[in-house]
Design goal:
Layout lengths: L2 E4 L9 H9 L3 E4 L15 E4 L14 H14 L4 E4 L1 H9 L4 E16 L15 E12 L6 E5 L7 E4 L3 E4 L7 H11 L12 H4 L3 H20 L8
Parallel strand pairs: 1-2, 1-3, 3-4, 4-9
Antiparallel strand pairs: 5-6, 5-7, 7-8, 8-9
């Protein structure tokens, strides 16, 4: 399975996704639209992973490349390619699928539990994933569920933590890809902007969480494994 990541800043590294690719022997490439106008060809990858970033999805004045990236994401979805969006990537997916992205009111930063959403019909994608797991969060915006999407996870502070659309487009608001170095860099660079709130953990509580990091890595690997086994989505073009 060939992986391709869209990255939005130098601090939002690939984390355990890079480790996953090496472990499985999968090719992994990246595109940074904020540095280049060159787009990857659709036949050059099997799974597109849209990473996080510090900007908002509507910050076109400061980041005009967002317009190009959204158009590319639409093309990938229309071509029936599997897509995984993480944090900013999840918000970009929600937007291109017609849902609202907005400020949540409370930031969620640190290690907090998520649980599978209480819906009548559980998505098949959840099979084999934990009903509840503590993962790393770093966000202040949220999204509505796109029409036709299935709700996957929620937390106490954020109702919509993840969804799946058309059995192959998955949006995850939290950060299952982090390792200790990534957490340290985020706290070091953006910690002064955290402020206080009911879902903002103290800095010292974010670091050195080996058990949570191990569980998060296992979750990330399990999610990526699922994409390898998904049946190809129908080309919508």
């Amino acid at each position: 399975m060939k992986l391709h990541c869209l990255q939005h800043s130098s601090i939002n590294t690939l984390g355990t996704i890079e480790e996953y690719a090496k472990t499985r022997g999968f090719p992994l490439e990246s595109t940074r639209f904020y540095e280049t106008e060159k787009q990857p060809t659709l036949d050059s990858f099997d799974l597109l992973i849209i990473m996080g970033g510090p900007m908002g999805i509507y910050d076109y004045a400061e980041n005009p490349w967002l317009i190009v990236e959204k158009q590319f994401i639409k093309q990938v979805i229309a071509a029936g390619k599997p897509v995984l969006g993480i944090c900013l990537g999840a918000q970009l997916l929600a937007d291109v699928l017609g849902a609202r992205v907005f400020e949540n009111g409370n930031r969620e930063m640190g290690w907090f539990p998520i649980r599978s959403a209480p819906v009548e019909q559980k998505a098949e994608f959840l099979e084999g994933l934990p009903e509840e797991i503590t993962v790393f969060h770093w966000h202040g915006r949220t999204f509505d569920l796109p029409e036709g999407a299935m709700h996957l996870f929620e937390s106490e502070g954020y109702k919509n933590q993840a969804f799946i659309y058309e059995n192959g487009v998955v949006a995850i608001q939290f950060h299952p890809e982090v390792h200790e170095e990534r957490v340290e860099s985020m706290v070091s660079r953006f910690g002064v902007e955290m402020g206080e709130g009911p879902y903002i953990q103290k800095k010292e509580g974010m670091l050195g969480q080996g058990e949570y990091l191990a569980g998060s890595k296992e979750f990330m690997f399990s999610v990526l494994d699922k994409f390898e086994k998904l049946p190809r989505r129908e080309n919508m073009e």
